[in-house]
Amino acid sequence: MAELAPYAANPEKSRGRRIAEDRPEGRTEFQRDRDRIIHSSAFRRLEYKTQVFVNHEGDLFRTRLTHSIEVAQIARSIARNLALNEDLVEAISLAHDLGHTPFGHAGQDALNECMASHGGFEHNLQSLRVVDLLEERYGAFDGLNLSFETREGILKHCSAKNAALLGEIGERFLKGRQPGLEAQLANLADEVAYNNHDVDDGLRSGLITLEELRSVPIFERHVEMARAAFPEISGRRLIHETVRRMINSQVIDLTRQSLANIEKTGPGDIDAVRESPQLITFSAEMKKAQHELKQFLRTRLYQHYKVTRMSAKARRIVSDLFHAFTSDVRLLPAQFQETAEESGNIMRVTSDYIAGMTDRYAIREHRRLFAVEEIAL
Ligand code: MG
């Protein structure tokens, strides 16, 4: 790895793990975090969880797993340009969606509604819960016992109410401070990844068309660039040549603007970063271009009636499951019944169980509980 900038997260100076462990041999603390995340079961489940299109709608759409890998790729490229810690930015990127429910935002909204009078449900907080508590892999502790900097990056948003319950990791939400630059970067790399792959998946699904997208200035500009390079190009190649140029422009913009911000503020170390305003940012022009693209995706893709119908079904599945389990604990798998008894909190245990489901597992579980023609249990 290239030399780290003074404002980068340094694994030698990590704020440490909740439960102290010996230093790893042959790898840094942040590499160890990344390795633990990749070997977790929550990470493997990302393969069958989706954001916009449900898993069974097509084999070529992004899943949360491929999304997380794309985020890590984009974040690492920029981290290298800014001399930030690539291992940390990769660990945060790969873990950032671990707490997502099945069926993307529809699933999360439904679960949050079900949990409204029991503390609610936030997917960022759930990602932290997965790595702090829910993974069962080690003899010495619950969860993955990750370092502070990785956990800080995973907890992207948090309500003040929940932040107050989290101790050190929640402090910045109460004091209005920033996380380290690697966390700021993973957050924006997430945006670059999903805005662009939603364009690609949206076109693939046929719910939006190339002609419609040309009304979005940033898309139109890059279509023209692709056509100038390859006058005969059309179809999928044109889409790919356009999308890869859009990603590249955003990566370059983010790198340049962030370098300028860092130069201007001149933070001496990660603690000075935490006290500074957000330093990893797009330029004002790029923010405007992204806003226009997001508006288009919201109204034309995320609110497309076919997506809306699937989302309604997804919400119903999550809420049916929640009400079935919480009204009769005996319907939960044995292991969760035990945890519910021990903790005395069937609501949170059910919420953890449902949040951990993949799309297809949730559909199957719903069928097992509700379809009268289903015989096998
Ligand atoms: Mg994401």
Task: Describe the structure in your own words.
The protein starts with 28 loop residues before the first helix and ends in a 7-residue tail after the last helix. It is globular and about 65 Å long. It folds into two domains: 282 residues, Hypothetical protein af1432; 63 residues, no CATH class. The chain has 19 helices and no strands. Helix 3 packs across helix 10. The chain has 377 residues and is mainly alpha-helical. The longest helix has 31 residues. Bound molecules: magnesium ion.
Summarize this structure briefly.
With 377 residues, the protein is mostly helical. It folds into 2 domains: 26-307, Orthogonal Bundle (Hypothetical protein af1432), CATH 1.10.3210; 308-370, no CATH class.
Bound ligands, each once: magnesium ion
CATH class of the largest domain: Mainly Alpha
The percentage helix is 55-70%
Number of strands: 0
Provide mean pLDDT, rounded: 94
How many structural domains does the protein architecture include?
2
Question: What CATH architecture of the largest domain do you see?
Answer: Orthogonal Bundle
Low-confidence stretches: none
**What assembly state would you assign to the polypeptide chains in this entry?**
single chain
Supply the number of helical segments: 19
Write down the CATH topology of the largest domain: Hypothetical protein af1432
Distance between the termini: 52 Å
Principal-axes geometry comes out as globular
